[in-house]
Design brief:
The complex is a heterodimer.
Chain A: H1 2-30, H2 33-62, H3 69-74, H4 81-87, H5 92-112, H6 118-142, H7 166-195, H8 200-231, H9 242-267, H10 271-294, H11 307-331, H12 346-378, E1 382-384, H13 386-403, H14 417-441, H15 447-471, H16 478-487, H17 490-515, E2 517-523, E3 528-531, E4 534-545, E5 550-560, E6 567-576, E7 581-585, E8 587-591, E9 594-605, E10 611-620, H18 623-657
Chain B: H1 8-38, E1 39-43, H2 45-49, E2 58-65, E3 71-72, E4 77-83, E5 88-94, E6 106-113, E7 119-125, H3 135-143
Classes of the chains: A alpha+beta, B alpha+beta.
Chain lengths: 658, 154
């Protein structure tokens, strides 16, 4: 019954979304608030219907209803409850329902949003409803998760054990929140083009959606990266794999959009560009969905691949993005340009930021799609690996980071570069000291890595310097500093946090990449291996039984070579009989900011014939910062988001007064 | 600055071009430069034997792990042959193999060809999913008519 109810709810949602599209379109055309209101109602009802369908799917997974093909293919009675629930979005069909849920959910939020002018709201909601209709039709007609199996199997095929992990259970919902959240920016951009009006108010409406999506995407990518780091057991956290790039391109476009929307909001300038980025961000999201789902690119972590249905995604992408960019090309020349500004100004700095971010996104796009293009053109198969990205993406980003701290210190319209330089002198000096210290402390000595540490410090100190400047730290009595700090808008704190978080991430990424040490050894029980400043001893190996797996568990002691407390950890090699698959469960010892990361390998014979195990030990200095930085950035984004409400209030009050 | 255009709009446009151009040139230049070293060509054992694979350059070799060819030596190295059922290449690898490395499994090895046409791998990739076949490997096998659909054993 549940599955039929779910299938019905999903079909109902499709009808409601189509209805909402029609009502909003007609309402806008006839200027009828009643029709547009009906469109809003239909959108909210569609969201409720998708939620019902999603609930039914989760229920089918929780109750292990193997008569549903999707459940039988992705679940198992032995699976812990969390992964039964997460199994609902572990497959192509289930994740598509999640996608539709987020899309209609954001649509419903847009429908309930207040203060938007009638025309813009109706057009935006109509666009959102149309997008939802496309994706719901895709779900209903080609990818229904509610298909029945007859006869029903007694046991399911289980979810891929690698996906049975807390980080990955929450990764798709957050990632989709970000991916699909950009659809609202897309809809608002299309609406602005239809209405032919891009002003400061539009900038103010698009920004919270961009901020929320970007923050969700940041957490989602970080969780995914952290999962790859500790679940795959390869010791790395970013592989420039097509699937990773697919999530990273919308993130870059979204980051550019956030900054350019600020200019549109404050100064009414760059309207066309902001609209372009809003279209681009969601186009990248759809491109990502296509790349991940279709399997056209070889990826190490693509799940739920299905080439044929991937092609339908490509068609949706082509229709939606093609129409939107055609509309853009047609309407944008008629838009009025906004306020003028001098090259050296806050606007100028934000334009530079946007150029670097989009250029970086373009190099990532090229690197991701180049194998496809070359194969289509010459038939040669290649892969574009980390060296390409290290040589293109990194230099562009470093340049962007170098100018970043100056931006917030420049005034709108016309900035004072010399003044900004003076205010940043201390931060710059300290960053140089940090680079020098990095050169002295870390072994082996690497000039580029030391410079990278300097850049990270420069970002953090630059962000702090700007805040210190605004609260007049050290230059005014403490009481006034406190008063000013309380008076700073949350958005200012948010920006400081986000920029400092970026610096924290850079520090971690540079230190980990440049100074990590990997050691592999075949150890008998009692054997030791050294990696960096730590010695690892294999104490015992025993077989343990988990809920749905058998594991060979190694007990190891990690002791600092220079003396200090030794700690015991366990690392496992798990065998899942349901899928016949083996996975690695690494042992991770947090040592301050560093990680000692131990992987239990296969059982081998030692030269003397005794049993031994291949053990790999990574010492990853400052690895903690790689994941901490993006969390700080997310927090910054959320703070800015909370500030929004205040300013909407202010804007409305001001509008009423005039 | 008399050479600057008079109208503020044209002046702004000029500034935008002045800012965009170098960044664009930099991005394109970097991309072209990096493409020379950053890309890795993929070959199958048959292609490697046809002497198209240069020695010492970073390459990817893909195929099936030949059944019965996997051997561990005392130095902790793994020796195995990668085959596309028409030709095979000897691979030597140091380090631990991915969990899904098995005989008969499709894999991609990254590394360099040695002068005796054997392959020294720095990295061996198998996927997260046991029914996975690297796409390049599947394509080459299809070309040779050696493709068997998912999971079917010969």
């Amino acid at each position: 019954m549940t599955a039929e109810l779910g299938a019905f709810a999903l079909a109902l949602a499709l009808a409601l979304a189509a209805l909402s599209t029609a009502f909003c379109g007609l309402g806008r055309w006839r200027n009828s608030p009643v029709l547009a209101g009906a469109g809003e109602g239909a959108m909210i009802a569609a969201a409720a219907a998708v939620a019902l369908a999603f609930g039914a799917l989760i229920l089918a997974f929780v109750t292990s209803d193997f008569s549903v093909a999707n459940v039988a293919g992705n679940s198992h009675t032995d699976k812990p409850m969390l992964y039964k629930v997460a199994g609902a979005w572990g497959s192509h069909e289930g994740s598509l329902v999640l996608w539709c849920l987020v899309m209609t959910g954001f649509g419903a939020a847009l429908a309930r949003a207040r203060g938007l002018p009638f025309g813009l709201k109706a057009s935006a909601l109509g666009t959102q409803a149309l997008l939802s209709t496309l994706f719901l039709a895709f779900a209903v007609f080609t990818s229904s998760p509610f298909e029945r199996l007859d006869p029903a199997p007694f046991q399911g095929a289980s979810l891929n054990p690698l996906l049975q992990d807390p980080a990955l259970a929450f990764h798709p919902p957050l990632l989709y929140g970000g991916y699909v959240g950009f659809s609202v920016c897309f809809s608002l951009a299309v609406a602005a083009l239809i209405e032919g009006r891009i002003d400061t108010a539009w900038g103010r409406w698009v920004r919270p959606w961009a901020l929320a999506s970007w923050a969700l995407l940041t957490v989602g990518i970080t969780l995914g990266s952290f999962w790859a780091y500790y679940e795959l057991g390869w010791g790395g956290w970013w592989f420039w794999d097509p699937v990773e790039n697919a999530s990273f391109m919308p993130w870059l476009a979204g980051a550019a959009l956030l900054h350019s929307a600020v200019v549109t909001e404050r100064r009414g300038a760059l309207g066309g560009w902001t609209v372009f980025l809003a279209l681009l961000a969601f186009t990248f999201s759809m491109l990502g969905a296509f790349l991940v789902r279709s399997g056209v690119l070889t990826s190490v972590h693509a799940f739920a691949v299905d080439p044929e249905r991937g092609l339908i995604l490509l068609a949706i992408l082509g229709v939606a993005a093609g129409a939107a960019f055609a509309l853009f090309a047609w309407r944008v020349p008629r838009l009025k340009g906004g306020g003028l500004f001098a090259p050296v100004s806050r606007e100028g700095a934000l334009v530079l930021n946007n150029l670097f971010l989009t250029a970086a996104a373009a190099t990532v796009l090229l690197g991701t799609l180049y194998p496809l293009m070359l194969e289509a053109a010459t038939g040669q198969t290649i892969s574009v690996g980390p060296p390409y990205f290290a040589l293109t993406f990194t230099p562009l980003m470093v340049l962007a980071f170098l100018i970043l701290p100056a931006g917030p210190l420049l005034a709108w319209k016309r900035g004072d570069l010399k003044g900004a330089g003076q205010r940043l002198a201390v931060a710059g000096g300290l960053a140089l000291v940090a680079a020098l210290a990095g050169w002295m402390v870390f072994e082996p000595k690497k000039a580029l890595a030391a410079a990278g540490l300097g850049v990270g410090a420069w970002l953090i100190l630059g962000a702090l310097a700007e805040t210190a400047e605004r609260v007049r730290l050290f230059r005014a009595p403490l009481g006034e500093v406190g008063r000013r700090a309380r008076g700073l808008p949350l958005a200012a704190w948010g920006m400081t946090l986000a920029h400092a978080g970026l610096g924290v991430f850079v520090l971690g990424a540079v230190a980990e990449t440049a100074f990590k040490i990997e050691a592999v050894a075949v150890l008998p029980v009692g054997g030791t291996v050294a990696s960096g400043p730590f010695t690892v001893t294999l104490n015992a190996v025993e077989v343990v039984e988990g809920p749905n797996y058998l594991a060979e568990q190694g007990r190891l002691t990690i002791a600092p070579t220079q003396g200090g407390t030794a700690r015991d950890i366990t690392a496992e090699r798990r065998f899942f009989p349901a899928g016949g698959q083996t996975t690695t469960e690494i042992g991770l010892d947090f040592r301050g900011l560093d990680d000692v990361y131990v992987v239990m390998g296969e059982r081998r014979r030692a030269p003397d014939g005794a049993q031994a195990w291949s053990v790999r030990v990574h010492w990853n200095p400052w690895a903690r910062l790689i994941f901490l930085g993006p969390m700080i950035m997310t927090l910054g984004g959320l703070l800015s988001l909370m500030d929004r409400r205040l300013r909407v209030g202010v804007g409305m009050r001001r509008a009423r007064a005039t | 600055m008399s050479w600057l255009p008079r109208s503020p709009k044209a002046r702004r446009r000029l500034w935008v071009v002045a800012a965009v151009a170098p960044i664009l040139v930099l991005a394109v230049g970097l991309a072209l430069w990096a493409m020379q070293d950053g890309v890795t060509y993929f070959v199958s054992p048959s292609e490697a034997n046809a002497e198209t694979a240069p020695v010492g350059r970073n390459m990817r070799l893909g195929g099936l792990v030949e059944t019965g060819s996997v051997r561990h030596d005392a130095q902790g190295q793994v020796w195995f042959r990668v085959t596309d059922n028409a030709a095979s290449t000897q691979v030597v690898f140091r380090g631990d193999l991915p969990d899904l490395f098995r005989e008969g499994q499709g894999i991609v090895a990254q590394g360099t060809f040695l002068s005796d046409r054997s392959f020294r791998a720095d990295q061996v990739l198998a996927k997260h999913d046991e029914t996975y076949m690297p796409r390049e490997v599947a394509d080459r096998l299809k070309e040779r008519g050696e493709w068997r659909p998912e999971g079917a054993q010969p």
